[in-house]
Amino acid sequence: MAIETAERIRVHGLVQGVGFRPKVWHLARECGLRGSVWNDAQGVEIHIGGEAAQIDRFCQLLLDDPPPLARIDELKREPADSLPEQASFEISISQQGEIQTGVVPDAATCQACIEDFQDPQNRRYRYPFTNCTHCGPRLTIVERIPYDRANTSMRHFPFCEACRSEYENPADRRFHAQPNACPVCGPRVWLADAQGEVIEPTEIGEDAIHEASRRLAQGAILAIKGIGGFHLACDGTNEEAVTILRERKRRHHKPFALMARDCEVIRRYCKLSDREAELLAESSAPILLLEQLEDNRLPENLAPGQASLGFMLPYSPLHHLLLADWDRPLVMTSGNMIEEPQCIDNREATERLQPLADLFLLHDREIINRVDDSVVRLVDGEARLLRRARGYAPAPIPLPEGFDQAPELLALGGELKNTFCLVRQGQGILSQHIGDLENLISYQDYLKNLELYAGLYDHHPTHLVADRHPNYRSTQHARALAEEQGLELLLVQHHHAHIASVLAENHWPLDGGEVLGIALDGSGYGDDGTIWGGEFLLADYLGFQRLGHLNPVALPGGVQAIKQPWRNTFSQLNHYLGWQTVVEQWGDLEPVKWLQQQPTEVLMRMVSGGVNSPMSSSCGRLFDGVAGLLNLCRQEISYEGQAAIELETLGRLGREEEGEGYRLNPVTADGVQSLQAERLWLGLLEDLRKGVAVERIAWRFHAGLAISISELAAQLARQAQVETIALSGGVFQNKTLFELVSANLNGQGFRLLSHRQVPSNDGGLALGQAAIGAAVALS
Fold first, then answer.
1. Which of 162, 399, 485, 650 could disulfide-link 403, Cβ–Cβ 3.0 to 4.6 Å?
2. In angstroms, rounded to a whole number, what is the distance separating the alpha carbons of residues 96 and 99?
3. What CA–CA distance (Å, rounded) separates 259 from 287?
4. Class (C level, CATH) for 189-375
5. Domain at 396-506+756-779: CATH code
6. pTM confidence score
7. Torsions phi, psi of 533, nearest 5?
8. Where are the CATH 3.30.70.100 domain residues in the chain?
9. Residue 405 has what pLDDT?
10. For residues 69 and 19, is the Cβ–Cβ distance under 8 A?
């Protein structure tokens, strides 16, 4: 008879709410082992007994083939004091303790569940809350961990006998699926009008989703309660409905996201590669930016001034059922007024969205945590997150080698596109996208999420990290928190945090040495009191040296210059060429004539007197200035980055394979390189005079800027004797600029680090702050 041995196995990672214990149960029985497995606050623990070779086999099988949504970060084995009491293998109840495990992101409906609700013989036929351990809501319904039904919004729905049987059967894929439900015992859905009155289906045998689909086809605007919040939907091919939605939502230009039944529908409107189709079908189910087909016959007002559309596939049973009969896309935009966070509560939605929606498709499963749709773009062959939310957050990001002993700390993030980051046990837990803290509702949501994450992870920071900008709400909250709790507060320079973010994401070791970081964005508080945004930094986690930057130019009117691109056009021309010279030499050009109708004398006095005209090295404002010259959003933008996005779109239509475009020239002052744009503006004006197509001018701007950035970066890197260059900041979400810079620097033999898992915009800032804070604490 073989000798039995016993072990205790501890598994850390994303191992709760993903069918991990049933997997352990199956494998243990397959290997002829006995014992038990249970969830606790640290993750999953296994007490197992049997032949040593079979325990080895069991562990290897578990590592090789975990459940689809699981992620094993660590599997620790140690001898047990005694053999298990059990004669076979079983699953035990969850236990409490010091919280060390993670919360799993929400996951799109799996194929097995789709087949269930599409099968007329299945008891879940057309049931919009069908799920199992491989799919369904997670973060959006959890209040605390362990992730058990009693700690979610599903606690209000007691099981029927059939669902309980599935839940308690380890051989069933719904074993311990916390949101498990059916039409007998689970949440229900109904259709209501703007006054809250229930609308019954017009056809016998149909349901609320049938009726909602019919009304959408008739041109209605529908508010839909989804997984992480409300959407506003309408027929994406109905120009009148799209126009009405824009007017009601006061979202005049920002693109609308679209949802399509399947990839075949998307291919009628956009180019879709195999890799892009794979991304759409992942359990994260993001919005994916895709290049439009010419003459796709979709309304131009879906995405004004853009060559791409944001498409996603249905990711909940409700979405699948709603789109089942649609061979065209639905607009699926966030359920809110512009710049507000999306609604999550039925009462809140019927009040705030009443002026926007004709109908409401509601349900009674509470959304505990607001989570937006994630946004991804394929750039330079890699999937890159532009917004990290549903499907990705709050999956932890392992910090690089050397950070494993970092103390618990909290990084508060930036002001725009805010996220925050917890550090614990060598991991960065980056929150879902919160939004712009300038908006009061978003700020209140930010405070709610800080409290939520502290509870979910039993997190007690000893250090706080925030941006150096004194007026950021996140920084002000950090100061108040530090004073209130007696915590150490570290303030981090904005662009240093951008570079640290890309280092941390790319597993750059704590002692990995310096890199040359290029941080290009709209604005960040500079150490010299000016606004930075076009930076070349020699940096590691502990510090940086500013080796170069774009030449600072005044922003006449301050914030107004961010909203009105023409102010940047004027300021750049005045700074480099002199406004009087511009009028004398190019006064016959349309943009110069237009600018002469504006209060340029007032602006010149403001700049010369230093009145509300801060100096800025912002690359984003350079884009705005060029866009204004080419009459793109010249008067005013209606959303952040609009001018730059439309300039990129225009440039991709005018691509040239040869030529260096409009170059910037580097000038050295006090050992720091400054890229001056005089040649750029001369080239732009001369090409306008020659009648060169604006598409070609836009391309030449991108080409010249990319070469200028690459050449200066290469020069500075060689002088500093570093071989690695890191790219970060929101400007690098520009596909054209990123790919041109990447090709140039790769061609020169440099190692490039760039973002994929977290956004290069301020949505990734908190991860960089956290890495810097951890490095300082460890030092």
1. 399
2. 8
3. 8
4. alpha beta
5. 3.30.420.360
6. 0.94
7. 175, 5
8. 5-91
9. 96
10. yes
Q: How far apart are CA 255 and CA 289, in angstroms?
A: 11
DSSP labels, 403-459: -TTPPPEEE---SSSB--EEEETTEEEEPPP-B-TTSHHHHHHHHHHHHHHHHHTT-
The dihedral sign for the CA sequence 235, 240, 245, 251: positive
Rounded Cα distance between 624 and 637, Å, is 10
- What's the CATH number of domain 5-91, 3.30.70.100, 3.40.50.300, 3.90.226.10, 3.40.50.10490? 3.30.70.100
Q: What is the pLDDT of residue 307?
A: 93
Residue 744 and residue 704: Cα distance in Å, rounded? 12
d(CA 235, CA 384): 29
| Apex 746 CA angle, 744 and 750, nearest 5 | 115
Distance of CA 309 to the CA centre of its chain: 17
pLDDT at 96: 66
Residues facing 270 on adjacent strands? 292
* Contact of 199 with 192, CB cutoff 8 Å: yes
- Backbone φ and ψ for 677, nearest 5 degrees, come out as -110, 20
Task: Find out whether the peptide bond into 146 is cis, omega within 30 degrees of 0.
Answer: yes
pLDDT averaged per 10 residues, the chain (length 779)? 88 86 93 93 91 96 93 94 92 68 86 98 98 95 84 96 94 91 98 94 94 98 98 98 96 96 98 97 97 94 95 98 98 89 94 96 97 97 97 96 97 98 96 95 94 92 97 98 97 98 98 98 95 98 98 96 97 97 97 97 94 97 98 95 97 90 94 96 98 97 98 98 98 98 97 98 98 97
Rg from Cα positions in the chain:
28
310 bridge partner residues:
257, 289
Residue reference for tokens 């319904």: 141
Distance CA(603)–CA(391), nearest Å, equals 47
> How many angstroms from the chain centroid is the CA of residue 364?
27
CATH architecture assignment, domain 549-753: 2-Layer Sandwich (3.30)
The dihedral sign for the CA sequence 198, 200, 202, 208? positive
pLDDT computed for residue 212 by the predictor: 98
Residue 553, strand partner residues:
616
Q: What is the model's pLDDT at position 101?
A: 59
**Distance from C-alpha of 51 to C-alpha of 33, rounded to nearest angstrom:** 8
Do the Cβ atoms of 493 and 469 come closer than 8 Å?
Answer: no
Is there a cis peptide before residue 394, judged by omega within 30 degrees of 0? yes
Q: Long-range contacts: 675-678, Cβ < 8 Å, 24+?
A: 675/534, 675/548, 675/549, 675/550, 675/551, 675/708, 675/709, 675/712, 676/551, 676/576, 677/550, 677/551, 677/572, 677/576, 677/622, 678/576, 678/577
* Residue 83 identity (one-letter amino acid): L
